[in-house]
Amino acid sequence: MIVRIAPYYALLRRNSAFRRLYAAQLISFAGDWFATVALLGLALELSGSATVASLVLVLQTGGFALFSPVAGVLADRFDRRRLLVAADLVRVPIALAFMLARGPDTLWLALVAVALLAAVGALFEPTSSAALPNLVDDDELPVANVLLGSAWGVMLAVGAAIGGIVAATLGRDAAFVVNALTFLVSALLIVGIHRPFQQPREPGSHADPVGGLLGSIRPVVRFARHSRFVSSLLLSKTIFGVGTGVVLMLAVFGDEVFHAGDVGIGVLFAARGMGALIGPFVARATTGTSDRGLLVGISVSLVGVIVSYALFPLAPSIWLAGVLVFVAHLGGGAQWMLSTFGLQRATPDAIRGRVFSFDYGLVTLTITLSTILAGILSESLTPQAAVWSMVALLAVSGTAWLWFSTPARRSLRRASA
């Protein structure tokens, strides 16, 4: 397997609109992980409870899931560039509110800020994914998806590692200030993009705001039910989300099992980020971009995540644990990119915002429930047993997805033959 860098460099060099969006994503993701590592350490320090610490991740995903239906309607109805800029600017003061948590009695202020930040982020992510096919040419879309899919991993790796060090040396407030500044820089980059973020709409084609809100899921379900391939892609991230509560245990293992504090949390989250960074490149190089290749790649990724996290609790050191986390998130990063690219290619622009808000909303809701369960298990079981319990749930749901997607894979194999 050879991953060629030239196509990625060429896209960044010739397409200024995508280059700005990519840079904006990199910068804001870096700030997110600076803050997340610091928040997890803060919650563990002030509360002494993994369940309370899990609220950081629960509120991140729960706030995203609750606001997603609204975000999808807005992304299909209004100018997507203005929505992205507004989302960034609103998040600046919210991100600074983390500094208000100075003791156990004020920790709730940071948790409220987490939920608000996630709610506004629910507007940014689906809108960005829906806009991408309009910012690049058709033949550039696979390459663009790999780069954007890896952006989250790049900044998780860099942001989590450096964020842990910054929190331990300069204090957590420094990480919170950096996070706020990244949203401002992201907004300035997106303002400078002049390529249209959506296709022209016919007069009267916009859904009524109230009806669109109440019925935002209906057009997505109607679109997906006629295609087992599209349905499989929409369920892909959600299936992975069933076991994502295990990510909470990275903080527990880094702090309590390996006794490495914020730096240990940063190491394990950085390993997660490196896997998510490299996974999309490996997936494109090995599975290609055919519809059947997307489903096969997601299937292999699923198995990789299950096996790696099943071995994770047996790791004798934080470094070997980091290797297993890296391998697991090779699969996680790959499946995210593959399912996102497939949906972008298969979905009309007029409903793409609602499709991605449904996709992201469903997976973040699942992650929220998974993280709550992981927090409960971490209080009643050993950390090792809690991880294995979450892996077992992922194995069951993954088997169900493999069964559900089998007709689509068979149909696509016959079509290609």
In short:
The protein is mainly alpha-helical and 417 residues long. The protein contains 16 helices and no strands.
General description of the model:
This protein has one domain: Growth Hormone, Chain: A (Up-down Bundle), CATH 1.20.1250.20. 83% of the residues lie in helices and 0% in strands.
Helix percent reads over 70%
CATH superfamily descriptor:
MFS general substrate transporter like domains
What structural class results from the helix and strand content?
Answer: mainly alpha
Number of strands: 0
Low-confidence stretches: 204-214
Architecture per CATH nomenclature, i.e. the level-2 architecture: Up-down Bundle
Write down the overall mean pLDDT.
81
> How many H/I helices?
16
CATH level 1 class label: Mainly Alpha
Strand content: under 5%
SSE sequence, one letter per element: HHHHHHHHHHHHHHHH
Q: How large, in whole angstroms, is the Cα Rg?
A: 20 Å
Total count of domains: 1
The end-to-end distance, rounded to whole angstroms, is 24 Å
CATH topology (fold) name: Growth Hormone, Chain: A
Main beta sheet: strand number and arrangement? none
Structural shape: globular
